[in-house]
């Protein structure tokens, strides 16, 4: 994939894997000249600010001593809770540990990974959600109705939010409005959501 200031390709995959957990990845390769302007830690920080603004503060990421919570405005209730961020190579990882949107028996599963990697063609910026067990699916064998409902709500919103985040990040860092192309990729086996 060649990188230009005026073109941006965003790769996406969202699937339910065999155990009905969610795997979702979105990435884009930014120009190599931006390598010093973005790290996985700044990616996380920008993403948390973006969640607050794109939801009109309805969802408020709160950094606490025991992790990060995406709280619903006015309630203090966490939609999704994470342990403190840990660095793993070129990524910062938030491990899921609870929240209203997580199946109660699966609170210790799943992670949200923010990656920034140097590649020959530029800087690959990625967001990956894996092993997530949404409450909406209900169990490891969700009904067709639950899968459909998840697909048209949470899965669609997650994809829209992450793609839009990558577009805005690219525009902010390059100072240019790019022509966007979203492409499907296959990273993992699973049922498309």
Number of strands: 11
The unreliable regions are none
Tell me the structural class.
alpha+beta
Shape verdict: globular
Biggest sheet layout: 11 strands, mixed
Rounded mean pLDDT score:
94
How large, in whole angstroms, is the Cα Rg? 16 Å
Strand content: 35-45%
- Determine the N-to-C terminus distance: 25 Å
- Helix/strand order: EEHEEEEEEEHEE
Helices and strands, with pairings:
Blueprint lengths: L6 E10 L5 E9 L9 H15 L4 E6 L2 E6 L5 E5 L3 E3 L2 E8 L12 E9 L2 E11 L11 H31 L4 E6 L6 E2 L1
Parallel strand pairs: 1-10
Antiparallel strand pairs: 1-2, 1-11, 2-9, 3-4, 4-5, 5-7, 6-7, 7-8, 8-9
Task: Describe the model.
This protein has 193 residues and is α+β, with helices and mostly antiparallel strands. 24% of the residues lie in helices and 39% in strands. It has 2 helices and 11 strands; from the N terminus they run E-E-H-E-E-E-E-E-E-E-H-E-E. It has helices at residues 40-54, 144-174, and strands at 7-16, 22-30, 59-64, 67-72, 78-82, 86-88, 91-98, 111-119, 122-132, 179-184, 191-192. Strands 1, 2, 3, 4, 5, 6, 7, 8, 9, 10 and 11 form an 11-stranded mixed beta sheet that branches. A hairpin with a 5-residue loop joins strand 1 and strand 2 (22-30). The longest helix has 31 residues, at 144-174. The chain is globular, with a radius of gyration of 16 Å. The mean pLDDT is 94.
């Amino acid at each position: 994939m060649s990188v230009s200031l005026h073109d941006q390709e965003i790769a996406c995959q969202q699937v339910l894997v065999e155990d009905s957990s969610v795997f979702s990845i979105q990435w884009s390769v930014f120009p190599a000249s931006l390598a010093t302007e973005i790290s996985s830690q700044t990616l996380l920080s920008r993403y948390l600010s973006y969640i607050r603004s794109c939801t009109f503060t309805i969802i408020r990421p709160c950094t606490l001593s025991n992790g990060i919570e995406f709280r619903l405005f006015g309630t203090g209730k966490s939609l999704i809770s994470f342990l403190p961020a840990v660095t793993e190579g070129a990524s910062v990882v938030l491990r899921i540990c609870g929240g209203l949107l997580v199946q109660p028996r699966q609170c210790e599963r799943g992670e949200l990974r923010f990656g920034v990697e140097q590649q020959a063609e530029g800087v690959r910026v990625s967001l990956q959600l894996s092993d997530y067990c949404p409450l909406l699916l209900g169990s490891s064998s969700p009904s067709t109705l639950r899968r459909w409902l998840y697909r048209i709500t949470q899965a669609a919103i997650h994809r829209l939010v992450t793609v839009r985040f990558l577009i805005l990040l690219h525009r902010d860092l390059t100072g240019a409005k790019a022509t966007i192309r979203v492409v499907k990729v296959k990273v993992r086996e699973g049922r498309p959501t």
